[in-house]
Every structure is written in C-alpha cells, then in structure tokens.
C-alpha cells in the first residue's frame, strides 16, 4: 500500500480523505491544512491525523494529494516533487502554464509521477463513450451550474469549462489552431458565463458553453463524426450512440431508413454501451496508485493537465480580443 497524505481538508479534501481512508491501495497517514482550528475539528470528528507542519507530513508519505486552492498548487507540488514524492493535483494543475511546465520538468528530474484531477475522464458515461468516439468533426458541450460562491474566485473557464476542454483534448487527436470566445461577469468579478469556439488543425470544431448562474444543472456533450452521433450526459451518467450503416436491400418493418438527395439509403441504429456504476474520484485516485506501482503513465498526466490549462488560458485571453 502506498502511504498518502492530503493537503487541504475543505469540501473536496474531506471527500478525498474519506475515499483514501477506505481504499485498499493506499494507507492514509494524515493531512495538513492551514487552518489549525478547523483541522483539529476534522481530526476529532473523523479520526484522520492532523499534521501542523507540511514538511513533517511529507517525510511520512509516498504520495501527496493536493486539494488546496489553485494559487497554492505550484509551491506545494514543487516541495513534494523535490522531496521525491508522487503528486496528485486537483484541477486546474496550477495557476499558470509556466508553473505547470516547471512541474513537468521537476517530475522528470526527480523521477516521480503526477496526475491531475480531471474527474470527468472517469465518469462512467464518458469512459463508456470514449472508445466509440473516432475522429469527431464537431463537438458541442454545455456545462451549466446553479450559483455557488465556492469557486467564484476564478473565471468560469477554470472552474467548469476546463473539464470539457480536457475531455475534448483526450479524444481529438489534433493540435488547437484557433480559439474565439466571449465571457460575461454577472455576479462575480470574473466571467460567470462563457462560450468558446475551438478550431483544430484537422478541421474539427468544438463549441463550448459554461455557466455558473443557471437555474438548473446540466453537463452534456455531443460528438458528431462520420456515420455516428454520440451524446454523453455526465450528470445523469447516460450515453447514447446513434450510428448509420448502409441500408439492407429489404429493410424490416421497424428499421429506420434515411435517403439522401443522391438516393443513397442509410439505416439508423443504436449502439448504446453498457454503463457501470463507479465512484469517479476513487477511480482517479486508485488508477494513479496503479500507475505508480506498475510504472505506467497516469491516465491524466501532468502534460495533459498542462494542455487543458493552456487551452483554458487561450479561451480567457480571447475574451479581451
């Protein structure tokens, strides 16, 4: 079992603490939080050992799980990596792309592994759909959330849209060519609603919308490719795959047949994958343990987390153009 320590015991940090404590791949050593009064309450309520000094926690573990505000990610991860510890970083990886690139270099130098917490990669609806997504040419995503003051210290792009950016980058095997975007600040000092159009070198176009001032929650993505339409509902954990194939010479009574202007007939059929139940956060933490133990590349590597941040920053920069 890998010895692990958690930095940050806020809303998400407490979830990580509980799951790591239950995991058979980790031994939870304890946690560090900058608020000692709050940390002592967590220790009394749940029994997790509180370390009042970050360096002391580092000395006792193999892995550091960083669940703190983004501004602190770089310094915390840098210390851990230089101490030879593997690091799991909540998204976004760091505050700037330059910081993220430094972490990649440090991890290579000290021969440790890092993973970024883009949890939607482990959503069962997406993992079921991903093998069926082949060369998509148009993608549309909507990630809408009811207002919550937590997270409003950063633009909605870094708070919400970056999930969809990462998912899209994982299935579009092409470099980003151009980004157009607009954002509006309604309640916060930074944009609360944003739309981005991302063009890739291979011709694929992705249209992303994110809002944290919606009346209802929605997390849907749609992928369009040759002879297929794939819909992923991250919230309801549902996937729908609609495909087309050449129509049979003698269609059945219930076959759905389309005929284009040239007279070509296609049959529409459903190829919906089976979706299993899982805990996505536990999965991302335990697959990171597997990557460490088996010396393989983490599913969401530091490099991939950096690319997601790079494109997110391009979206934010496009607001001002």
TrEMBL record:
Molecular function as annotated in GO: nucleotide binding
Domain of life: Bacteria
One Pfam entry name: GFO_IDH_MocA_C
Coiled-coil regions, chain positions: none
Domain Gfo/Idh/MocA-like oxidoreductase C-terminal: 150-321
InterPro entries: Gfo/Idh/MocA-like_OxRdtase_C, Gfo/Idh/MocA-like_OxRdtase_N, Gfo/Idh/MocA_Oxidoreductases, NAD(P)-bd_dom_sf
Ranges for domain Gfo/Idh/MocA-like oxidoreductase N-terminal: 2-118
UniProt-recorded name of the protein: Gfo/Idh/MocA family oxidoreductase
């Amino acid at each position: 079992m890998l010895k692990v320590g958690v930095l940050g015991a806020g809303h998400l940090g407490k979830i990580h603490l509980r799951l790591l404590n239950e995991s058979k791949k980790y031994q939870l050593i304890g946690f560090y939080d900058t608020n000692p009064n709050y940390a002592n309450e967590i220790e009394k309520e749940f029994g997790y050992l509180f370390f009042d000094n970050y360096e002391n926690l580092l000395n006792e573990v193999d892995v550091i799980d960083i669940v703190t505000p983004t501004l602190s990610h770089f310094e915390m991860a840098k210390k851990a990596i230089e101490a030879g510890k593997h690091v799991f970083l909540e998204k976004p990886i760091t505050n700037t792309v330059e910081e993220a690139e430094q972490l990649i270099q440090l991890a290579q130098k000290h021969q440790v592994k890092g993973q970024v917490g883009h949890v939607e990669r482990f959503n069962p609806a997406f993992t079921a759909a991903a093998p069926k997504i082949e060369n998509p040419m148009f993608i549309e995503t909507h990630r809408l959330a009811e207002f919550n003051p937590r997270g409003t210290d950063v633009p909605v792009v870094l708070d919400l849209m970056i999930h969809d950016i990462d998912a899209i980058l994982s299935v579009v095997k092409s470099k980003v060519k151009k980004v157009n975007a607009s954002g509006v600040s309604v309640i916060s000092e930074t944009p609360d609603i944003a739309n981005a159009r991302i063009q890739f070198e291979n011709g694929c176009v992705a249209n992303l919308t994110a809002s944290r001032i919606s009346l209802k929650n929605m997390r849907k993505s749609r992928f369009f490719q040759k002879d297929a339409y794939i819909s992923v509902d991250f919230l309801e954990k549902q996937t729908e795959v609609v495909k087309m194939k050449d129509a049979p010479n003698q269609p059945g009574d219930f076959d759905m047949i389309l005929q284009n202007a040239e007279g070509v007939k296609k049959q529409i059929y459903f190829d919906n994958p089976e979706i299993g139940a899982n805990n996505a956060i536990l999965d991302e933490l335990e697959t990171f343990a597997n990557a460490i133990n088996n010396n393989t590349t983490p599913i969401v590597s530091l490099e991939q987390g950096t690319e997601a941040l790079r494109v997110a920053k391009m979206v934010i920069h496009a607001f001002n153009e």
